[in-house]
Amino acid sequence: MNSYNENLNSSVSSSLNNQEVALKKAESQLDATMFSLYYAQGDYITIYENLEVENSKNTFNQKLFNDMVVDSDISTNVLSSANHGKALVATSTSNASVAASDVQLATNAIVKLASDIGSIFNIVSAADYGSEIYEQSEDAQILIGETAYLAEVLSQTTMDTSAAISEVSAEELATKAEASDTMVKKLLAVTKSEFEKSASQVNTENNNLAEASTNEKKLEGELEDSKVNFDASKEAYKLTNEQLNLNLTVKPKNRKNLEYKVSFAPYQSPFQISENNLPSGYPVDSYYIFLVKESKKKIFSISSAEGIVSKEESKNYISIKVKGAGANNNGFTIGKNEISGIIRYNGLNDTDGDALEIGSDYVLFVMAMLSTEYKKLINNFDDYLSAPSATFNLTNQLVVPQVNQIKINNLSSKQSVLSLADKIVHGDPISDIDFTGSNPSNNQTVEQELEFSVKQSSNFQLNKGTKDVVTEYRCMFLPDNSEFIKGLLTSQELNYLTTSVEDDDAVASELSELKLREVKLSAELEKLESSQSADADVKKWFASVQKSVSSKTLETLVETKALAEGGEENLQTVLKKLTVKNISTKLSVKIILKSIVLIIDLSLVQRSITAEEKEQSQSIEESSNNKFKPGFMFNSLIAGKIPAGSYSSPTQNGDTFTVAITPDVTDNFGNRLIPGDLYIPVVFALNGQAEEISKQFSNALSDFQETPPFTYKNQAIPNQNK
């Protein structure tokens, strides 16, 4: 290779390498921002859940405080009544004692009087029996005797009254009432303090929530910026690769069969050469594809490539003969604008003669062996070697259960009584009977488990010496918080960014690529039309071809394009399929076929653009009506970084796996599950063995968007997040 070609190849390789480094840097920044947003959303969700708990506590403390205010008022009235009763009882006791004493004195006087009257009656009876005085004395004795008896009864009654009044413990009652009032006042002070604390905590959590929300929104903006930067870097690499490196592209096509698709644009002469009677593929006779270890891409050169070809070790390269070849060659399709084919993992050794190693990084080079005639024409006998492709690797795809293979089982139901404190923490309804302790309410405690079925492939393609492969499953419960995550990004936008980070080639960038191709094809067609004569018939012919192509079905256009690229002998068939006339008298057959291919390509691209825009429009319309779960950033990359304690390892029984959803199970943020809340069960499959084994596998995450959420029902649990 001469110095000019060496410098050119070095410059192209350096430019692509710099673009690839910039792309990887942008991707790393995007990943870092994505993780930051995920943890920020985790903080927001945790604070939101804590706020729910604090609101429940505050509601209870407020009710308790209000009840204690009423109790305090009652206690004050009771104490006042007890003290008033104490004073009245003391007065009554004194009055009763005085009355008893006075009655006793009167009784004694009456008894003495009765005794004196009895003595008088005895004297009268002895001295004047039967007389009128005797009869009057007898009557007086009887009356005084009754009076004395009644006096003694009254004296006994007053004494009993005094004794009964003295037995009333009004003073003890007042003492106890005072003590009770003191305790009630202290309890009032405690409940007031707790209420003020819980109210303050609610304010604190609200402030924390506002701060977390601000941080989340900031990171959402940074994520969008990082995504734009990543897309720009990706597009810059793509354009550089397209313009300077034959648009050499390698994409893993089928992870199950470990295939990769290779495509590149045909090498074209940079010099203006007459197109009459040029052989197919001119100025290239053959293309050679080389698989090179990523670590050796900087030292692989045209000399290395020619040396490998000269040894004719066909397993170390793929040869694509263009000169005189048909539409297919060695499994590759040769088109006017692209050469592409599928290579299996064992279909090509690397340039060292080693079999492709699963999980290791490789690049591809393409060498164009130029025809001898062309080399003589330009007086340069060097062949062309592309710069390396983007780095790629092949891995075995792990399997996760389908949506219909994931279910939540309710194992048993039993009656349990929740304490008042548990009700407050869990946010259960509280009634007056919960404060009296009578007739406590019964709540259902339902024990649940996650069950899923999955069977890994037994036909993994493994590197030599690899054995005893073990697949690890991690079960996570994502809180379905799409209702209260109110960031700058909607949940569906988060879902788009999550998807685009994981598989950027499968999303919206396709539309921009199609539109870019439309512009290029339109410019190329316009250039071709303007280069021909200004004959009115030629212009009408171009218009008729465009009109005919627009009315044909997709299958007809694909078939017609293949015929047009097949050679000049297919001209009449092509024109017949398009129902346009032959104007070979004014345009060469080659120009006619080239124009038809361009017009068909342009039509196919425009149809793809229309279909893609319609699909995106439908997606936007559906997203306005559908609920995207779980409302925060989550994908396979994040799932692989979830720390231990935030996921559960299942118990295996054959192809069935189960996880008991016990009270200590947490969600993916490490928070305990909250009864009554919705959670989405997901299963993450990975290989957690040594790197030489784990690198051979691609992780997998179950489809949480389509997995129905379940309501966590186990309520016999300790304090949630404190």
- Oligomeric state: single chain
Structural shape: rod-shaped
Task: Label the structural class.
Answer: alpha+beta
- Looking across the biggest beta sheet, what order are the strands in? 1-2-7-6-5
- Count all strands and give the number: 19
> What is the CA-based Rg, rounded?
50 Å
Q: Whole-Å distance between the termini?
A: 72 Å
Topology:
Blueprint: H1 3-127, H2 132-167, H3 170-244, E1 249-254, E2 259-264, E3 284-293, H4 302-310, E4 318-321, E5 328-329, E6 332-334, E7 339-344, E8 362-370, H5 372-378, E9 384-385, E10 396-397, E11 406-417, H6 420-426, H7 433-436, E12 442-453, E13 472-479, H8 491-502, H9 509-531, H10 536-551, H11 554-566, H12 571-578, H13 589-625, H14 636-639, E14 651-653, E15 656-661, E16 678-686, H15 691-694, E17 697-698, E18 700-701, E19 710-711
Parallel strand pairs: 10-17
Antiparallel strand pairs: 1-2, 2-7, 3-4, 3-8, 5-6, 6-7, 8-9, 11-12, 12-15, 13-16, 14-15, 16-18, 16-19
Helix pairs in contact: 1-2, 1-3, 9-13, 10-13, 11-12, 11-13
At a glance:
53% of the residues lie in helices and 15% in strands. It has helices at 3-127, 132-167, 170-244, 302-310, 372-378, 420-426, 433-436, 491-502, 509-531, 536-551, 554-566, 571-578, 589-625, 636-639, 691-694, and strands at residues 249-254, 259-264, 284-293, 318-321, 328-329, 332-334, 339-344, 362-370, 384-385, 396-397, 406-417, 442-453, 472-479, 651-653, 656-661, 678-686, 697-698, 700-701, 710-711.
Can you characterise this structure?
The structure is a single chain. This protein is an alpha+beta fold. The chain has helices at 3-127, 132-167, 170-244, 302-310, 372-378, 420-426, 433-436, 491-502, 509-531, 536-551, 554-566, 571-578, 589-625, 636-639, 691-694, and strands at residues 249-254, 259-264, 284-293, 318-321, 328-329, 332-334, 339-344, 362-370, 384-385, 396-397, 406-417, 442-453, 472-479, 651-653, 656-661, 678-686, 697-698, 700-701, 710-711. The chain is built from 15 helices and 19 strands. The strands form five sheets. A five-stranded antiparallel β-sheet has the order 1-2-7-6-5, with no helix packed on it. Strands 4-3-8-9 form a four-stranded antiparallel β-sheet. Strands 11-12-15-14 form a four-stranded antiparallel β-sheet, with no helix packed on it. Helix 1 packs antiparallel against helix 2 (132-167), helix 9 runs antiparallel to helix 13 (589-625) and helix 10 packs across helix 13.
